[in-house]
Specification:
single chain; 3-stranded antiparallel sheet; 10 helices
Length: 310
């Protein structure tokens, strides 16, 4: 059995031809809704801290507390910590759109399903931010042993001490939207696309490396717990399962809208195409401009009937 037989299926034949001027506003709309919703979903700080500590305790119980050793390594070694901060602050803004554009231009037959998968998962993640505000490791008190590497190395980049936001804009981001980690979720989506649809060994290698390194980065920079990363992968799985139903629903909505538009643009019913007589001007069916002609009276036609139009 071939390898692709076990891979998640994202292929879908588009019903209509893809247009960048319709795709781009749609993507921007969903991302704008995600960003605004993420910002508005600010929970109580105490509740967020409690959730973060609960996750940390659960990880220690199952011996999956990988954040501490990675964070100590990134804090001690700037040659690892600084690139990791750049990776966390920028690549999800670059790689994810680049893969979308590549699919749109080179793999149009699977683009619509892949885009729907990504958007659906993103909106599920927004629900997670709203229902489970979580304090990331870097914002826990110092006694828990974490160092915010982005604050430590902020002089190397454009970000300030508040998350990965540019200096002075930390108040415009929700720093307690840590669960799930969509950095990991989006990286996993990119990895699947590159692995399944890339045609070179380099593309497939990037498909494996990108989500793996991103997972290490989000923990080493103390921006996410390991369970956040697992939740990001789970969100992408849920989005994949919902891709087909969401695609069918979108197709029904699109077809219904097209039918309404087509009905509104149909020709006027035949009853309204009868001859129109006004002010001694008369038109016949098929004429666009009335011709000046008078209807004949009975004494002109001689047999009591109106004379035919000339």
């Amino acid at each position: 059995m071939s390898q692709t037989d076990h891979a998640p299926r994202t292929e879908a034949t588009p019903h209509v031809r893809l247009r960048w001027w319709t795709e781009l506003p749609l993507i921007l709309l969903v991302y704008g809704a995600y960003s605004a919703g993420r910002l508005l979903a600010r929970g109580d700080v105490g509740t967020a801290v409690d959730h973060g500590l609960a996750i940390l305790r659960a990880e220690k119980v199952v011996h999956l507390n990988l954040e501490h050793p990675l964070n100590r390594l990134f804090t001690r070694e700037p040659w690892l910590g600084v690139p990791a901060d750049f990776w966390y602050a920028s690549l999800h803004y670059v790689v994810t759109p680049a893969v979308l554009i590549w699919l749109f231009r080179r793999r149009a037959h699977i683009y619509r399903a892949a885009r729907t998968w990504l958007m659906t998962s993103t909106l599920i993640g927004l629900v997670g931010f709203t229902m489970l505000p979580t304090c990331p490791p870097r914002l826990l008190s110092a006694g828990h042993g974490f160092v915010d590497t982005m604050a430590q190395y902020s002089s190397y980049g454009w970000w300030g001490g508040a998350a990965s936001a540019p200096k002075g804009l930390g108040g415009m981001t929700n720093q307690y939207a840590a669960m799930p980690s969509l950095h990991v979720g989006w990286a996993l989506w990119c990895g699947v696309m590159l692995w399944r649809h890339g045609r070179t060994p380099y593309a497939k290698a990037a498909g494996l490396a990108y989500p793996l390194i991103t997972t290490l980065v989000v923990m080493g920079t103390a921006n996410h717990y390991f369970f956040d990363a697992l939740a990001g992968a789970a969100v992408m799985g849920a989005g994949l399962l919902l891709t087909a139903p969401v695609t069918r629903l979108a197709a029904r909505i699109r077809d219904r809208a097209s039918a309404v538009l087509a009905t509104g643009s149909r020709a006027v019913p035949s009853a309204t195409r009868s001859p129109i007589v006004s002010g001694e001007c008369q038109t016949s069916p098929g004429e666009r401009i009335p011709r000046q002609r008078k209807a004949a009276t009975s004494h002109e036609s001689g047999d009591g009937a109106a004379a035919p139009a000339r």
